[in-house]
Amino acid sequence: MKARLFESTLRTEGAAVIIDLHGDINAFAEEGLNSAYKNAASQGESNILLNFGGVDYINSTGLALIVGLLTQARKSSLHLKAFGLSDHYLEIFRTTRLDDFMAIFPDERSALANTNGSSDE
């Protein structure tokens, strides 16, 4: 499998900023992922949703980057949530217990319906 470079786009939907993630989340994604998060956090919304629908691969470094975003969000009292994870990565998020600290939804609609401030459910 050929690696795909990481890319992201931001959009605002209701009370949330959505970061649409594309490509591989690994060490090469660090600058782009952190930049996307900082741009999303500066939008003034308390909910940041990570859309993993376009992500092909996440390695252990990529998971550490996501944990770093979660840490930044918690320090800033922002709610970081995720949706669009494949079954494989959903299982990894459960195994690593990331889902204990970040609400995970099956799709954008359900994630947006839960932008009332809770980061855990």
Which descriptors apply to this entry?
single chain, 121 residues, alpha/beta, Transcription Regulator spoIIAA, 4 helices, 36% helix, globular, disordered C terminus
Set out the fold topology.
Blueprint: E1 7-13, E2 16-25, H1 30-41, E3 47-58, H2 60-75, E4 79-83, H3 87-95, E5 103-105, H4 108-113
Parallel strand pairs: 2-3, 3-4, 4-5
Antiparallel strand pairs: 1-2
Helix pairs in contact: 1-2
Helical content stands at 25-40%
Strand/helix succession? EEHEHEHEH
Instruction: Report the CATH superfamily.
Output: STAS domain
Number of strands: 5
The count of domains is: 1
User: What is the fold named in CATH at topology level?
Assistant: Transcription Regulator spoIIAA
Task: Give the second-level CATH assignment, the architecture.
Answer: 2-Layer Sandwich
Category by helix and strand content: alpha/beta
- Total helices: the number is 4
Describe this structure in words.
The chain has 121 residues and is of the alpha/beta class. It has a single domain (7-109), classed as Transcription Regulator spoIIAA (2-Layer Sandwich). The chain is 36% helix and 31% strand. The chain has helices at 30-41, 60-75, 87-95, 108-113; strands at 7-13, 16-25, 47-58, 79-83, 103-105. Strands 1-2-3-4-5 form a five-stranded mixed sheet. Strand 4, helix 3 (87-95) and strand 5 (103-105) form a beta-alpha-beta unit. Residues 117-121 have low confidence and may be disordered.
